[in-house]
Predict the structure.
Amino acid sequence: MVLRAGADGPGRTGAEAPAGAGRALPCALWLIPVPDLGGVARHVLDVVRTGLPGWRLVVLCPEGPLAEALRALGAPVLTGPVSPADGAARATAEERRVLQRLRPDVLHTHLAFADLTGAAAVVGLRSGRGRRIRLVSTEHGISGVRGYFQAGRPQAAAKTALHRGRLRRTDAVIAVSDSTRQQILAQWGGGARVVVIRNEVAPPATPPQPRPGLRVLSLARLAPEKRIDQLLRAMALVIAEHPEATVTIAGTGPLESALRDLARELCIADHVRFPGHVEAAAALAEHDVVAQLSVWENLSYTLLDAAAHGLGVVATDVGGNREIVPERCLVPAEDHEGVARVIVQQGMDLASRPERGGAGDPARMCAGLTRIYEGVAG
């Protein structure tokens, strides 16, 4: 376990102090098994920036960009071997050591690996207040397309059995959308209370003035489940009618070379950019439409951000997408003509774009989290 300076100043994070040692606020330890700045890291950073009313938040994660971003915000952060790369046995042992030292009131796990190892690590442990440490889990990534994200049926069945078992030891489960809640109940059954607390994002400090245009943006890993090849095929139809149209394929991944080849085959390479990783807010400000034709999404931060910035949205009708954008934005990925039609409509007709208010309010999200903690911790 590596301790870093955070909100309590150099040399001491506040996470080091035994619970109850002069600490007025109850403590929630967030277990995040990934080091990078992805969707879950975005959620963590938004909550840290907003704060959990009446609670102290400490984050345990692997060393990496997320830990660095948390330190920059002055947040108490612990780093250690708690990622899938470290293996379940080592991660569980490290998590148990941290729990025994910190003695938080709540352990809040995020992502499947942490859900399973955290449930094992917390067994039999008590908080600084002498009560059983409560276990809360947020489900960010359960897929409604069964077997798509597993290596095979036996592996999927084994993971399902593990999740059903750990839910019986979990005090509350948070789903990020109604769709996510439905999938939890359908795939893993009961055993814990499942409450919906949606991801919510703040509008930009200076909201950009929307304008018509066909500058299309994809913000996604270049992987099969994002179906960016279908977007390029639809863009070929858009460009044939609107030669000023462009598309930016931001991100990296295993399909980058194949997607570049496809752009050349479709004779649209001059209209397509592959900039790699980009700063999302800056990219959103420079485009008119966000396209996301994923196989599955739970509650996409990309779509929330697009709506908050006043951009048009083209997305597949999967997971929680229809909880963010209206039906007129949703279209099957394989319907290239339909995708092209919605891109043009969302780009050129400002009235057809999603309402900005649908992106929500992070303070409301954080208030919902504290209600869960108070309900389970008493």
Notes: DSSP finds twelve helices and 13 strands in the chain.
